[in-house]
Design goal:
It is built from 10 helices and 10 strands. It has helices spanning 6-12, 16-28, 75-85, 94-101, 105-118, 147-155, 188-195, 238-254, 260-275, 280-288; strands spanning 43-45, 50-52, 59-60, 130-138, 165-172, 177-181, 201-205, 219-223, 231-232, 235-236. Bound molecules: zinc ion.
Length: 292
């Protein structure tokens, strides 16, 4: 497997100027000046995080509307923190960022949190082709939970019957993966329509919540999981089953407890890592593309 090594990383991003230029390229390549419509290449403004139009002087700030905008933390720190997230299977904790960058824990925690958000892939769009859909349940037994916490969970509309939080999973043939934590009262069908394009063929188990989707979709294949049917001809839910076991393993292996309110962010990151598992060489670039 091709790797993006630390040596390559350091050579590409030795200082804040190089990082800023990368952001400029990512966000404003081929820019036509919004003020004078000149297509001349913008140039760097000295001592500011800005580029300007050589014709009229209009300024562009590459960090504007990104996580880097309102931070005094050097861009090199951010880039390195993102790079670190691509080097291990389950990512790097805030404690490790604190140590490696020699920054305070609060800053490290904030960075780790913001980078997680960047790892929620915004560019996926609705899934097409053959799409496997399934639901799974996570979390602790309510019996072990404090009464107040339990009341909060009920208020959130979580599943009251088995005391766990439901997650719906979507996986397409071209390996696009989405998880949605079911924290509100939307129906299964509404969730499917939100994430899956109408021209798709959908494959689900026989849960009644999926019944009727054949009206919306080209085809709806129903596998009977109760009779151990996970594959019929070219239709299978084995891919999404694998994703569940991956997700469960990750939750067990890395976090002692993922609280309900952070679960969506967490599963987004896990999905991102699963989709980019064999793409470490481009993962850094992929994360950066989500900055703005
Ligand atoms: Zn201009």
């Amino acid at each position: 497997m091709k790797r993006f090594t630390i040596t390559q990383f350091r050579a590409m991003y030795p200082n804040d100027d190089a990082c800023l230029h990368k952001l400029f390229q990512l966000r404003f390549t081929g820019l036509i000046c919004p003020k004078c419509e000149s297509d001349k290449q913008f140039t760097r403004v000295k001592d500011r995080r800005a580029y300007n139009c050589p014709n009229c002087g209009f300024q562009i700030y590459p960090t504007k509307d990104t996580v880097f905008e309102k931070t005094t933390t050097p861009l090199t720190y951010w880039f390195y923190a993102i790079y670190l997230q691509t080097t291990t299977r389950n990512g790097v904790a805030a404690k490790e960022l604190e140590r490696q960058l020699n920054i305070c824990y609060k800053t490290a925690l904030r960075m780790a949190h913001q980078i997680k958000i960047l790892m929620a892939d915004k560019h996926i769009g609705k899934l097409t082709g053959k799409v496997q859909i399934d639901e799974s349940y996570f979390g602790q037994k309510l019996a072990n939970m404090h009464r107040k916490k339990r009341a909060e969970m009920y208020a959130d509309g979580l599943n009251k019957h088995d005391n766990k939080t439901g997650v719906m999973g979507f996986l397409s043939d071209d390996n696009k993966l989405r998880f949605e934590v079911m924290r509100d009262t939307k129906t299964f069908k509404q969730r499917v329509r939100k994430h899956v394009s109408k021209d798709a063929i959908i494959v689900t188990d026989s849960h009644l919540g999926y019944k009727g989707l054949d009206i919306t979709y080209v085809k709806h294949e129903v596998l009977n999981h109760f009779e151990n049917e996970f594959k019929r001809g070219e239709y299978t839910t084995n891919g999404i089953e694998n994703a569940w076991s991956n997700l469960k393993r990750t939750i067990k292996g890395t976090h002692i407890h993922v609280s309900v309110e952070h679960l969506q962010k967490y599963v987004d990151e896990v999905a991102f890592r699963m989709m980019n598992r064999d793409k470490q060489d481009v993962m850094f670039e992929t994360i950066l593309q989500n900055v703005g």
